[in-house]
Design brief:
Elements lengths: L5 H7 L7 E2 L6 H11 L11 E6 L2 H19 L13 H19 L5 E8 L3 H6 L1 H17 L2 E2 L10 H8 L6 E12 L12 H4 L6
Antiparallel strand pairs: 1-5, 2-3, 3-5, 4-5
Helix pairs in contact: 2-6, 3-4
Length: 210
Amino acid sequence: MLELSPDQLLSTTRAVRKRLDFTRDVPDDLIRECVALALQAPAGSNVVTARFVVVRDEAKRRAIGEIYGSIFAQYKASPGYPGKNDGATERDRVQSRVASSADYLGDHMGEAPVLVLACNEGTDRASATAGMSNVLPATWSFMLAARARGLGTAWTSMHVVREREVADLLGIPYETVAQAVLTPLAYTKGTDFRPASRPAPDEVTHWDKW
């Protein structure tokens, strides 16, 4: 366990891409600990519908990586890609670093020792997709728990463009389970992550009215 205060944990749990260590195995018990803490997150009506699919099998990881990489290539060609700037401002320089990091994960997602898909289970497809507010807090708690254990994660969701294909690959029942987040899980190269640049609280906070 890293020696992090609650505030340090919350402010330094970053999307880790280039600093994921693909050479080290992640013990099952550590993953179980992260899931156990994830399940302490809020759940509507105290009904836990979050589900986690842990992918260790190399062939399946590679296949998911190929799907993710293919979708990422389309995203890279879109107007929303953060690397489309001239680097003239500090924000452009930051976004260029973000783009470079995202590019790396686009090329190497399937090489992570573990991939984790956070899903929501319902009685049918409609209830599964409607209940995403249950799985999202649990996923963030999973990532915080991973960071505390020296593990890195990266919140991605673009794979849902081909969700059914991923579901078929992993035997996920598409009609009752909706996928929300795909993250690599690996030890990090070093643990010295810093807070990101964010707006001041007063820039985004409205008191009593908008």
